[in-house]
Amino acid sequence: MSKQELVVLGQRDEDDACCPGLVTSPLDADQAAELAKLFKAMGDPVRLRLLSLIASQAGGEVCVCDLTPAFDLSQPTISHHLKLLRQAGLIDCERRGTWVYYWALPATLDRLAAFLATSQKAEATA
After folding, report:
1. pLDDT by residue (tens digit) across 42-70?
2. Nearest alpha carbon to residue 100 among 71, 70, 62
3. Which of left, alpha, beta for 76 (phi over 0: left; psi -120 to 50: alpha)?
4. Does residue 119 surpass a pLDDT of 90?
5. Residue 73, CB half-sphere, CA atoms under 13 Å: how many?
6. CB–CB of 19/114 below 8 Å?
C-alpha cells in the first residue's frame, strides 16, 4: 500500500479565506449555508434595488427618507425589506434623530464578489 497522504477535495486549512471562489474549490456545508442567507436576502427585486441604491451613494450612506420615494411601496414594507438586508449582514444603520441612515457593508459585498469571481485561468479554458 502507498504511504502517500490522501487529499480530500473541498477541505481547507484554517488559514484559508472564509469562502473559496466558485471555481477554485467546492464549498463546505457551513459556507454554503452562510452564503445562502446572503443570496436569499438579495433574492427579492425590491431588496436588490434597495441594496443597489444604498451601495451606490456617493457619501456612502443614505437616509431612509430618500429611499422610500424610489418605490411604489408603503414605508412599513420598505422598512421590512431593510430589516432583512440588515439581518443578512449586507447593510447596517444608525438612527439620527427622527431618521435612520443606511450604508452597505463592504466586507460582505467583497466576500460575495470574491465567491462569484472567476479566475483569468478558468475563463481562458472555457
Report:
1. 999 999 999 999 999 988 899 999 999 99
2. 62
3. alpha
4. no
5. 18
6. yes
All three cell numbers of 27, joined, read 464549498
Question: Are residues 82 and 91 in contact, defined by beta-carbon separation less than 8 angstroms?
Answer: yes
Number of other CB atoms surrounding residue 89 within 10 Å: 15
SS (H, E, C) the chain: CCCCCCCCCCCCCCCCCCCCCCCCCCCCHHHHHHHHHHHHHCCCHHHHHHHHHHHCCCCCCEEHHHHHHHCCCCHHHHHHHHHHHHHHCCEEEEEECCEEEEEECHHHHHHHHHHHCCCHHHHHHC
- Strand order across the 91-96 sheet: 62-63, 99-104, 91-96
